[in-house]
Design a protein that fits this description.
Arc Repressor Mutant, subunit A; about 240 residues; four-stranded antiparallel sheet; alpha/beta; 2 domains
Length: about 240
Amino acid sequence: MDMTLLVIDNDYDLVDQIRRNVASTELGVIDAFQYQAGARVVGSQKLSAVILNLKLPGSISGFDFLKDLRAAQPMPILAIGQLTEAERVQAYRLGADLIINEPVALPELIAATHALLRRYFHLNHMARFQTGGMALHYKELTLSQGRREVIMRGRPVELTAKEFDILYLLASNPGIVFSKETIYERVWREDYPFGSQCITDYMSAIRQKLGLTSSDSSYIETIYGVGYRLAPIVSKFDEYCD
């Protein structure tokens, strides 16, 4: 399994030591020396673990960043910094999985990093085992391809085979617009019959089964004259990148 570790810290020597000790052919290390740079990585990469310094200089609070980081991706987070007891408690409450106070002892930090990566690998392995394939999560919607199950707002949703395939296609590519022709050709694996309204009918049925009205664009958006998409998720990290 290829994994990616993000290190958000302005200590160049420490970041270099982490890279030297943990990087491998299976693990890539990405560095970010400011919260804004880290936010851009979080918004564009699937991460296996994050090492986050909570006390970087600047106008952005490391604790606010930690809270948004926890909401963005379900990876383990190791927080470091010169922290008081109250700050360590706050960091745990905001989503840190492990905290190491500065000055950092490199052997402890490396051992803790390996422990977090083992946790990530274990959690992903169990998720694959339990679902028969990785589940897709989008807002309050979950799709399991292996079991072909759909959960919306905590309740199971019964979809036909084609309805599931259409929804899975959209959920695999949130924010990407698919034309009716493309949806048909991807799902049916044959040319789109000119003038057919079947995709329109399928989208209406999917919306209804998910408990969405035709005017509700919070999940499925109709891009008139173009096609359909799952509405792009506006990340809290967009604020850091402005």
